[in-house]
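User: Fold this; tokens only.

Assistant: Input:
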Amino acid sequence: MLQIILGAISLGLLWAIMTIGVYITYRILNIADLSVEGSIAMGAAIAANGIYNGMDPFLATGLAFIGGMIAGFVTGMLHTQLKIPALLSGILTMIALYSINLRIMGKANVSLLRMDTVYTVLENIGISRSNSVMILGFITVMVIVCILYWFFGTEIGCAIRATGNNPQMARAQGINTNTMIILGLVISNGLVAISGAMIAQSQSFADVQMGIGSIVIGLASVIIGEVLFGKNSFFSRLLSLVLGAITYRIIIALVLKMGMHANDLKLFTAITVAIALSLPVIRARIQTYLKTKKGAM
């Protein structure tokens, strides 16, 4: 059981990077960006193809980050310059990335067995693969959290947050909201691509369909993090995303251990997200009922 939980924590740390990317668009920009499902697979495809062809794993992961940023830029341009709705812009980018990812890999999947990855550095000093994934995942997540905490405290970061919170007021203050939306999408998809690259290297293969359902996983992690670990300061919100992703992976590992069929995971995730999203409404109705009952007494 301990090994299962540790494995879930390791994987949760890698998915936490994607969760942070989803949070930037879903909560900060108030956009449901479906291009995430394509950019996470793109990150895996670029990293896997680069490593397969002899590229340094860290450089390949960096290229994956750039690829994800380009995907976010395309989505942003479709939305802001061509005035295509944000949801549809993400869908168009996601569909296009499926073919692009196939072109990058040359086939549906690429194996990384017996090849150097970003975890090999730690493995070479005697640390096991699972512990290497956990250590590097934790370091990467904390570096990203600290950088984003600093960035969103800068003038540009505050402008992005203002754009998502109240675009009319942001424009009245002289903020170019189109630029801020594009920048937010670029950062978000870049982080998602890093997550895809690190996940692919941890599981030793990249698959063109690995991004299917990732947006739901990201939303589930965001909601679980906010509900269970609060959302007071911005820094605590970022940490809650990490804890939410880890908690989600632990829940998945436990329900699989209890006998749930793997084919039912998507259904379980959808139900979990629906319940989590409806919690504020359920809580408000319960409070209203209790007040009404108390008043009647």
